[in-house]
Each structure stands twice: as C-alpha cells, then as structure tokens.
C-alpha cells in the first residue's frame, strides 16, 4: 500500500482533528506491511508521526494566567478614602485601679471551695495583684481572668488573714477571705496555683508582709478611735455637770426673784 506524500505534507501543515484521526488510522493499517514498504520509515513519515503525537497530547488550559503586571495593578493602593457612615467617639474606660499601685503581679489559676458539692471549683486563670491605695494605704487582692477581664477575687488584706501552703502541691497555697467579687460579701476559701514554686513563695511572702503592715495601721486606727471616743465622753460629762449645776442653782434663783417681787409690792 502506497502513501501519498503530497497528502502527508498537507496533513503536516494543517493538522486538524479529522486529518489526525485519519492519518493515525492510515498508519495503523499500514503497520502490517512495513516489512515490504520501506517508505513508511522515510524521514518525512517519521517527522509526521512525531508531529501527530505532539498534537494529540493534552493541551494546557485555554484560560490565560494572570500577568504579574495586572496583579500588581490590582494590589496597588488607589488612595481613595471612604468616609465612615457612623462616627464613633472615644470613651474613657476606668478599671477602678487608677488610685492604686501594684505591689505584686503574677500569673496564676484560682480555685474556690464549694461547700455544697464538697469540692474545688475553678474560678479562673489570669493575673493576681496586690494593689495599695495611694491615700489610705490599704491593700487589696484583685484577680481578673486573662481574656474576659472578669473579676475572680476582690478582697482587702487584713491583719487577721493568713496564707498556708497546700499540703498536696508546693506550687499552691490556700487562705480564707471575705470576698466581694460577686458584688456581695461572701466568706470564701481560696486556693491559687502558680507555674513555679518560686512564684508561690513570692506570693505567700508578700501576703504575709501586707497583713503584718496592716496590723500596725489597724492598731493606730483603734487608738485614734479610742482617743476620739474619750474626748467625746469628757465633753458629754462636762455638759452633764453644767446641767446639774444649773438645776441645783435654780431654786435659789427662783427665791431671789420672789423676794424682789415682794419688796416691790410693799413699796
């Protein structure tokens, strides 16, 4: 079977899908007679076969890839400014700690003892602080949750308080307090756990120092109150004495007035 060279050249120049299929079918039919027809192995037929195989390989997507220049143009800032629909004003936020100085600030996790369930319940994890008031010099313990800033503990440190190390964990300690975190005074048993033993010791030492420092102020306050009470009592006693003297002298003054009136009548 002979191969038409002109037809092969035309297919080579214009490899349409129909011509490609016909050519492949033509080559497959002629494969059985390759031993007798050496024209199939001519350079022209070999080049044609390679070109046909390349034409039938899957083509890349026809969608053009975005050019770098176009992408850069899209990302480029146009400088346009959009006026806000609603104008928000800045609001000053107060924490209630503006008049206090932080003595200690540590990260910890707080627990409180649930008497009804007879178990420890987590109160929150965050920052625990000892805050000293600038004027009154009173110290309170405040702890807030790290994410929500919700108050976990809020109570004064008074001389009668004491902190003790937890028997089962050297990174934890416990104490009693009249807490005001929920908006009302509650007698709570707290347990706090730190990441290290050093932080726990530092907390306990600061707690004891603050409690002892408040003891002297409490005694001086009691002495001042007692002195004021004594002064008030002395003033009250003096008033009572004056009132008694007036009462004692009242009959004499009455008699003198009566005598003066009697003399006027006689005249």
UniProtKB/TrEMBL annotation:
Pfam families (alphabetical): Ran_BP1
Task: Specify whether Nucleus is a keyword of the entry.
Answer: yes
A GO molecular-function descriptor? GTPase activator activity
Q: Which GO terms describe its biological process?
A: mRNA transport; nucleocytoplasmic transport; protein transport
Q: Which residues form the RanBD1 domain?
A: 81-216
A GO term from the CC aspect: nuclear pore
Composition bias, Acidic residues? 66-78
Q: What is its main location?
A: nucleus
Q: Which UniProt keywords apply?
A: mRNA transport, Nuclear pore complex, Nucleus, Protein transport, Translocation, Transport
* Classification via InterPro entries: PH-like_dom_sf, Ran_bind_dom, RanBP1-like, RanBP1_RanBD
Q: Where in the cell is it found?
A: Nucleus, Nuclear pore complex
Region Disordered, as annotated, extends over 57-83
Identification of the protein by name:
RanBD1 domain-containing protein
| Source organism per UniProt | Mikania micrantha (bitter vine)
């Amino acid at each position: 079977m002979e191969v038409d060279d002109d037809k092969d050249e035309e297919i080579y120049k214009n490899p349409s899908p129909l011509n490609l299929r016909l050519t492949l079918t033509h080559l497959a039919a002629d494969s059985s007679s390759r031993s007798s027809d050496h024209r199939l192995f001519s350079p022209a037929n070999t080049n044609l076969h390679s070109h046909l195989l390349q034409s039938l390989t899957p083509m890349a997507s026809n969608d053009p890839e975005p050019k770098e220049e176009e992408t850069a143009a899209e990302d480029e800032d146009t400088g346009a400014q959009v006026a806000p629909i609603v104008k928000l004003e800045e609001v000053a936020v107060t924490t209630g700690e503006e008049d206090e100085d932080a003595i200690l600030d540590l990260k910890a996790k707080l627990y409180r003892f649930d008497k009804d369930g007879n178990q420890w319940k987590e109160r929150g994890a965050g920052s625990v602080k000892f805050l000293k008031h600038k004027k009154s010099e009173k110290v309170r313990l405040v702890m807030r949750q790290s994410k929500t800033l919700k108050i976990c503990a809020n109570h004064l440190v008074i001389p009668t308080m004491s902190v003790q190390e937890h028997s089962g964990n050297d990174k934890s300690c416990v104490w009693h307090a009249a807490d005001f975190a929920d908006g009302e005074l509650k007698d709570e048993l707290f347990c706090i756990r730190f990441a290290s033993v050093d932080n726990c010791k530092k907390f306990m030492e600061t707690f004891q120092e603050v409690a002892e420092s408040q003891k002297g102020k409490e005694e001086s306050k009691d002495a001042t109150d007692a002195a004021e009470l004594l002064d008030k009592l002395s003033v009250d006693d003096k008033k009572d004495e004056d009132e008694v003297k007036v009462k004692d002298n009242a009959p004499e003054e009455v008699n003198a007035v009566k005598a003066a009136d009697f003399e006027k009548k006689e005249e």
